[in-house]
Amino acid sequence: MKTDRIILGIDPGTTIMGYGLIHQKGNVMEMMVMGVLKLGKYPNQAIKLKKIFDRTLELIREHHPDELAVEAPFFGKNIQSMLKLGRAQGVAMAAALYCDIPIFEYSPRKIKQSITGNGNASKEQVSAMLQTLLNIKEQPEFLDATDGLAAAVCHYFQSGKVAGGTSFTGWKAFLSQNPDRLG
Question: Which is catalytic among the residues 71, 100, 147, 180?
């Protein structure tokens, strides 16, 4: 496995898509950028999907990620919402596939568990832990941004072996082996 890589994380959505990129250098991860793509102003689903595809391609071309980690749609009661979310995820994945970037999918529960140790953690708890792990000074306006970043960090933790043969199973293992990262 590469020990110098860039991971793009995406939290797909049809109103707001969150994204974050981390750079892994050995067994250290640094946040590169996080943000959101606001889609509420676009009149129909097809245009929103095109915007997601275009923005994902822009992020890939600008930052050259080695891998994409994407949050899987969760199962809910509203079938129309799930369908829209699945399409949003699909076009982000298609952009990565178009650029030959490997895709890794994680459930929302797995991402939360990997970041906070609790699969039922709130968005605020995930954001707070990411602030600690990555030395982020302030919480973003939209927690969708930290959700995208969380997908990337989850993939970093779940990837197993890193420099020196160290294996991390989640944030607790990472912090125990990197106590200097806890601010």
Answer: 71
pTM (two decimals): 0.85
Cβ neighbours around 57 below 10 Å, total: 16
| Residue of 11, 67, 138, 180 marked active site | 11
State the Cα–Cα distance between residues 47 and 135, nearest whole angstrom: 36
144 is catalytic: yes
Q: Cβ(142)–Cβ(17) under 8 Å? A: no
Q: Is residue 71 among the annotated active site residues? A: yes
Structural domains of the chain sorted by starting position, each given as residue range(s) with its CATH number in brackets: 4-181 (3.30.420.10)
What tens digit of pLDDT does each residue of 93-139 get?
A: 999 999 999 999 999 999 999 999 999 999 999 999 999 999 998 88
In the set 138, 144, 147, 180, the catalytic residue is 144
